[in-house]
């Protein structure tokens, strides 16, 4: 890449989620021009009903390399509980869902629960996002420029495109083709939703653990997770929001259960909850009639393989590069490392240390190797923990939530 190209290097970011915004902040710090696009509108970006938390642990080490110091200082604003102390939890307690007995603690490196919405809003400060931009196509022309076209008829050109558009990434489809980009379903499904309980129950849940507590039922391997999602007033437990997640292997669902309708889903959720020890039993039974539970299927990118990045012009980041099942809490942490690594790669291009093709290829190779390793470990975790016979052979016993290493 010529000196003029380095000087005028312009990055297109598709997706204003956590990874896309962190890249934008890092490029801004490096004085590298960029444009960031988001498919959601300014309204739905803030009001979407599907809101959840994420477990931040080893990935926190990569944030400061991209965020300006003033936002790093305010990072606690992204916590589910902004007043959380560093020693609030040392890991994730796993219980026997039938008896309530503590089985083990899944080790983690300074775990925090962060709000997806709060983190995006913090990372978005000072960043100009173009909303309502649903990607139609991305291509590289004969002049080496990247062109992105959107469903509203608009388009943009740049020098590099990084797809940060999630597990169902349209950028990934443009890079590897629709067939190769397709996700593989895992025979594990889940309900995952936010909920507020009364003050007494809310306090009781957090007494178990300030961040999260989970259990596996020995009779059918169903997992029941409760974690803190939002604490607007620490003195009023009735204002706290929790993330409620129940997941199971599909073939354990009785034939009488109807998961095609909202009433059927809630009936199944409550029937399973009634089998649990406290506090999961009370939490499940407290969910009001009429609550609409979303049903999600576990997925991962089984077809992941080295992709053609068009001499460094097209690449992927975060869930677009390595969508994985959620039961080891690795998605956010790997996405943060991806973002920091991508910014570091572009810094080297700008300085003239390496060319664009080499920098992005080195980035891609590392992301693919690390991401494929974790997708496979997380898949094993998902399958093993939903079976009482294999629970103690799952990765959480040997590795906890620590970062996977090739060796």
Automatic annotation (TrEMBL):
<keyword id="KW-0503">Monooxygenase</keyword>
<protein>
    <recommendedName>
        <fullName>FAD-binding domain-containing protein</fullName>
    </recommendedName>
</protein>
<keyword id="KW-0274">FAD</keyword>
<keyword id="KW-0285">Flavoprotein</keyword>
<dbReference type="InterPro" id="IPR036188">
    <property type="entry name" value="FAD/NAD-bd_sf"/>
</dbReference>
<dbReference type="GO" id="GO:0071949">
    <property type="term" value="F:FAD binding"/>
</dbReference>
<dbReference type="GO" id="GO:0004497">
    <property type="term" value="F:monooxygenase activity"/>
</dbReference>
<keyword id="KW-0560">Oxidoreductase</keyword>
<dbReference type="Pfam" id="PF01494">
    <property type="entry name" value="FAD_binding_3"/>
</dbReference>
<dbReference type="InterPro" id="IPR002938">
    <property type="entry name" value="FAD-bd"/>
</dbReference>
<feature type="domain" description="FAD-binding">
    <location>
        <begin position="123"/>
        <end position="368"/>
    </location>
</feature>
């Amino acid at each position: 890449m010529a000196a003029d190209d380095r000087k005028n290097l312009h990055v297109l970011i598709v997706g204003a989620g956590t990874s896309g915004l962190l890249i934008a902040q890092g490029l801004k710090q490096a004085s590298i021009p960029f444009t960031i696009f988001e498919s959601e509108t300014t309204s739905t970006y803030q009001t979407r009903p599907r809101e959840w938390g994420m477990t931040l642990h080893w990935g926190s080490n990569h944030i400061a390399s991209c965020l300006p110091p003033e936002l790093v200082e305010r990072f606690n604003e992204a916590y589910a509980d902004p007043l959380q102390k560093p020693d609030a939890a040392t890991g994730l307690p796993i219980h026997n869902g039938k008896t309530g007995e503590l089985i083990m603690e899944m080790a983690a490196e300074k775990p925090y629960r962060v709000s997806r919405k709060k983190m995006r809003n913090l990372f978005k400060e000072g960043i100009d996002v173009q909303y309502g931009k649903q990607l139609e196509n991305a291509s590289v022309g004969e002049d080496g420029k990247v062109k992105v076209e959107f469903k509203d008829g608009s388009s943009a050109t740049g020098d590099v495109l990084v797809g940060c558009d999630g597990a169902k990434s349209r950028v990934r489809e443009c890079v590897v083709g629709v067939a190769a980009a397709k996700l593989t379903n895992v025979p594990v499904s889940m309900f995952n939703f936010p909920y507020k309980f009364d003050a007494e129950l809310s306090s009781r849940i957090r007494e178990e653990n300030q961040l999260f507590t989970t259990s596996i039922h020995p009779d059918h391997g169903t997992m029941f997770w409760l974690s803190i999602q939002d604490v607007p007033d620490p003195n009023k437990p009735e204002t706290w929001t929790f993330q409620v997640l129940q997941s199971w292997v599909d073939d354990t669902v009785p034939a009488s259960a109807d998961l095609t309708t909202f009433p059927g889903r809630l009936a199944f959720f409550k029937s399973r909850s009634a089998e649990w020890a406290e506090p999961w039993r009370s939490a499940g039974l407290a969910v009001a009639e009429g609550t609409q539970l979303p049903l999600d299927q576990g997925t991962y990118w089984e077809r992941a393989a080295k992709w053609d990045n068009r001499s460094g012009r097209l690449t992927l980041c975060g869930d677009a590069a390595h969508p994985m099942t959620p039961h080891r809490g690795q998605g956010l942490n790997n996405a943060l490392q991806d973002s920091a690594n991508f910014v570091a790669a572009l810094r080297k291009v700008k300085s003239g240390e390496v060319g664009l093709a080499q920098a992005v290829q080195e980035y891609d190779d590392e992301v693919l190797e690390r991401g494929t390793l974790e997708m496979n470990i997380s898949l094993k975790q998902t399958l093993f923990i939903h079976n009482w016979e294999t629970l103690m052979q799952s990765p959480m016993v040997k590795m906890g939530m620590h970062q996977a290493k090739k060796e």
